[in-house]
Specification:
Rossmann fold; single chain; seven-stranded mixed sheet
Length: about 220
């Protein structure tokens, strides 16, 4: 059952493709990390996707400590409020579905690019609403939840970018997430970085290559 969306709208930005009209361009949904906002991932998104993609970037509606935007509540570092994860994942999927006719882009060609908390909500949304995204790039993700019934993600392309020395996300948690997605039938590509939780040039290179292959 789909959880009814909140009446509160996402604060967000939509940046249309520069070289083609919005309707004929794929759309990259940008999902920031804790403390970010709708502007945090725009440069990374445009730099990796190029000018032929639309960009859609919402701000998380949960405020941690009263000031740090997130996409769902957590109870402690790495411990998530699963009920809120479920609610917010459905809410995000409904937002994207509503934004498609509003801005004139193809709702069937939306690819999510999430970092940290943004990666976790992207993974949760895919697991709960498997038709919400045509593909997902997850930067520094963790397992957000395990649904009671695994969805069919056959032929859905996924990129997982992780840090081998990430102090927040253990490597075994990343491996569990990749395995979970593979059991759902997804095509999972992994890119490992020698550093930690911060984004690096190798992440931009991996995402840029992945997005280019989607367009080929």
């Amino acid at each position: 059952m789909t959880t009814p969306p909140s009446t509160e709208e996402f604060i967000h930005r939509f940046v249309p493709a520069e070289t083609v009209d919005a309707a004929s361009a794929p759309t990259l949904l940008l999902l920031h990390g804790t403390g970010g906002n709708e502007n945090q991932m725009l440069g990374f998104g445009r730099g990796t996707a190029g000018s032929s993609w639309n960009l859609l970037s919402p701000r998380g509606k949960v405020l941690e400590g009263g000031h740090s935007p997130r996409f769902f509540r957590r109870l402690a570092e790495g411990v998530f409020d699963e009920a809120d994860v479920i609610r917010r994942a459905h809410e995000l999927a409904d937002f994207v579905a509503g934004a498609a006719p509003r801005y004139g882009f193809d709702g069937r060609r939306v690819f999510a690019l999430g970092y940290s908390n943004g990666a976790n909500i992207a993974a949760a949304t895919l697991l709960l609403r498997p038709t919400a995204f045509a593909g997902v790039a997850l930067l520094r993700p963790m397992v957000p939840l395990i649904p009671p019934v695994l969805p069919d993600l056959t032929a859905v392309p996924l990129l997982v970018c992780a840090g081998r020395h990430d102090p927040i996300v253990p490597t075994e948690n990343v491996a569990r997430l990749a395995g979970l997605l593979q059991r759902c039938g997804a095509q999972v590509e992994e890119s490992w970085y020698s550093g930690g939780h911060e984004l690096a040039g190798v992440d931009a290179q991996a995402v840029s290559r992945w997005l280019s292959e989607l367009r080929s």
